[in-house]
């Protein structure tokens, strides 16, 4: 098994290195290696992946005994949902690209229509594959499957790399374009090597459809990067699960469902944060992209963060303390999905934290007493703190046994129940055991209540209706008592995680749709020099966006299992 | 335990990020952050580490029950030896630096004497600590010890980062200096921001001692980088071992000793390779650093590699096949040292492989049919192949049970022995079991022979001398027969690993002492642009050197246990 993993890992490593070398060559030497060369390489890889995926769908997975086990932790609904969501956005993006190329067909080559078509095919097939097979623990053709998966991971990573470099180059061009336009007041149109074709002969004709294509293309770009990263993480989990045998002892839990009951302050505070955030985001976008960006808009933007981030940090710290107070048992079973979640959270946070440290050093070295600079400084410090506390909170939450608290409540409930219903000791014993089994499976409080009632009714048909009614009432009372006793911790956890979910969503939306103050405020840019800061942002920003998205997923899981 | 690891890991991450931001600021903005600022930060970190190490040596480790277990795999002699070796070179380096600063005291500040002194103190204390405590599994003050270890790791990483950037900047300056000198024929002395002080007023007076200091400083620099990396790896193993309890079932094996017997071709071929390599290295150094480097010296250098690398790859592949044929049991016990070795091997190889891929793309895109270019192309491809095959061979070898082959030989020997000495069945049984225990511990063939003789003599004192002599002779004969039958595989493994050890030593020596053809041939430099290729080499070269050193260690282990 180790040999197969090593071999497929080496394959992926080589593909990734070759592709990165290609992409870097394209960036640093536009003449020798063009974007078309990179696209040809990526298309070959995509076609290979497509062949493997189709072979897997039609061949490998239909063999007898191919999928004996399914990993219940792998591919939760929010991950598969985001694959579908981002996948459809990516398809839309490619369609816009095809449409744009068709309009400007007189100065574009055929490849700019062919490659997006391959991309669409690839995205569709991959999304279908991930939707249906993300839980598989495949038991046949181990090594071939591993290699196929690793090839697909490598292709997605390269697509991500290309998208990131392209995306940020795009961003950069736009911001420079604006600067140049300001300076020359529209006299000399800026021509970058990448844009030269378009600006000289291939400008978009002034039709609505072309503008829509162009604008949609720019807006949808970030979703493509997210799509690649999410696919990589799902594929990695499948790869880890190849050949894994799950003992039948761990029956797949019926996952607790997402319910809104019992939380008030979290959604309220969170929604307020989201609404204010959207307002600030829109003001920022109008101000920063319109004329010369003035200080005021940055002050507003950073102030919003400086208010929001401490709230989030405090919430995460309180949540961690409650976790420690609860003393639930830790879930130490092997679980590739969770290990990956933890690694991704920590790894993706590095991007944001690294950028913050660079900002801190730049500000401290220049002038930390200026208003805007002191705002950026506190923003950076708070961001580091928030990232760390939130990571600790989520990792803590993911490692808890989800159902022990519920079972505990049941036990306390039973103690009261025993005192009341001591007249049927023998039957009560069997009921207890069967009920405990149930508690392990269905943790929803209301469902439990109902089931308890059903159960007791079924077991005590001989007992007279009066006794039964009395007993149920007393049992429910003692149950409710223990529930309300335990639930302040659980309720607080739910409030906190719901609040954090909403905050992370707004912090995810803002950079995704184009608010990049780290680039636009110009402070670090002038300190580190243009190209260095560009490289740092290039590395940090997409990871930061991915971090927000991933922590939304993690926090939802904490919310559900709390 | 997990919480402590997470917390100390976060501490280290923050320190590393802060330090990297400082160092990058120094590189990209010389005015705001100077080298002195970075030195101050690092000195503070060093003093903190020193305090912790001294507290550990005098406090923590002397507490009752502090060190109940020792990890026999951690800190093998070659690692601790290289810590001492590189440590002493680093101390020498710092002494040279102090001496150099004292000579030029009129234009250098006091800090340039103070900081190297702190560094010397730090290196000495750390080397002492690692020499004596690298096997510790500390059982008290877990979290404090973890934080201390992580702080020390972070400090070493930052020292490495500073050394790497400084080292490569130095290299770069030298090569540019040469270019400039050639162009202006000594008219205008080149003044780099870093060297400006020295070149304007602080030139070295023409005394021998100053030249020695200057030259020794340049020569010893690479050892400092290696020292930091080796310390990091040892500290990491100690960190992983904090709080670990080793079941007393696994008694520490008496490690097999390094012996040269039974290998002929490996040392012979290897020594030839080393001697030729040294000749080529010296010719290269004379030619490349003297006047304008001509093509011939590069052709010679790359030809040497192109002959050597396939030999090494074939050796590693044959070794891997023999490993597969042997069907020894795999050693699947938890072993942090080995996991780290595997990760370091794979990680360090990435540097070399990445650089090779960049070379390949650059050559294929320019002109692969030129003689030198085709040589570099095949060199790069072969280097990737060699790295991968060697990694597979070493990892395979590290995961074998070292003593099973020896035990097998004993069993075959016993079969013959039983047929001869069937007159003492009861005593033979007890002897067998006690001997099997022995085989598990001492695998050296000659020692076994001697012990066997001792043992049998002790157990069979009643038996007449005639019978004894006869039996010993027959047993030895059958033993020798089985030994010679098994040993072709083991001998081949030893030949191969010895050959690879010598090859890796020469491939380690050449870049360490200044042969950097990837930088000096100018091909990739002109393709990617100066600064990009500079960054790539910056990342790849030190990792490549570390990889060679680390694989020497791994191969020695494979040799010993084969």
UniProtKB/TrEMBL annotation, chains A, B:
PANTHER family registered for this protein in UniProt: PROTON CHANNEL OTOP, PROTON CHANNEL OTOP3
Keyword flag Iron: no
Gene Ontology cellular component list: plasma membrane
Ranges for region Disordered: 416-455
Keywords, comma-separated and alphabetical: Cell membrane, Hydrogen ion transport, Ion channel, Ion transport, Membrane, Transmembrane, Transmembrane helix, Transport
Organism for this UniProt entry: Pygoscelis adeliae (Adelie penguin)
Family in the record: Belongs to the otopetrin family.
Membrane topology: Multi-pass membrane protein
Biased composition (Basic and acidic residues): 444-455
Compositionally biased spans, kind Polar residues: 431-442
Pfam families: Otopetrin
Name under which the protein is recorded: Otopetrin-3
Entry's transmembrane regions: 12-32, 38-58, 78-101, 113-131, 143-163, 218-239, 260-284, 304-322, 342-365, 371-394, 496-515, 527-547
GO molecular function: proton channel activity
